[in-house]
Amino acid sequence: QVQLVESGGGLVQAGGSLRLSCAASGSTSSIIATSWSRQAPGKQRELVATISSSGSTNYADSVKGRFTISRDNAKNTVYLQMSSLKPDDTAVYYCNTLNLGSTTSRSWGQGTQVTVSS
Question: For the residues 34-45, what does the mean pLDDT come to?
Fold first, then answer.
């Protein structure tokens, strides 16, 4: 199993920056991709960014050019650098992994709140 702990959320003014961290533990060798998703009140969960085990990345159109996903393999940590934040970026941000073991599974963190004030 993979356990995930997110950190780095908080309150920031529009135009500011935050960096979220997702630290993985457990069966980290089974992780084939890590994603950040977000859910705002009253809205569906939205996939924000993904980084694969090969290092390839994908972003939602709404965050392209503003957010960067990266990882530190030595620390088993994935980061989401968020810049030029907008009030619409306000949400709970969740880290999740796609794991390949005897079966395919997903692991989710507990979420971290990001609030962008106008």
Answer: 96
User: How does pLDDT run across 5-14, given as a tens digit for each residue?
Assistant: 999 999 999 9
Strand partners, 60: none
Q: How far, in Å, CA of 65 to CA of 47, rounded?
A: 16
* Contact between 116 and 89 (Cβ < 8 Å): yes
Burial grade of 38 (CB within 10 A; 0-12, 13-18, 19 or more): buried
* pLDDT for position 103: 85
The string over 77-96, giving b where at least 16 C-beta atoms fall within 10 Å of a residue's C-beta and e elsewhere, is bbbbebeebeeebbbbbbbb
Q: What does the DSSP 8-state code read for residue 87?
A: G
Q: Tokens 């619409």, residue? A: 88
Tell me how far CA of residue 53 lies from CA of 57, 85, 114, in angstroms. 10, 27, 26
Sheet holding 77-82, edge to edge: 2-7, 18-26, 77-82, 67-72
Query: Cα separation of 97 and 106, whole Å?
Result: 5
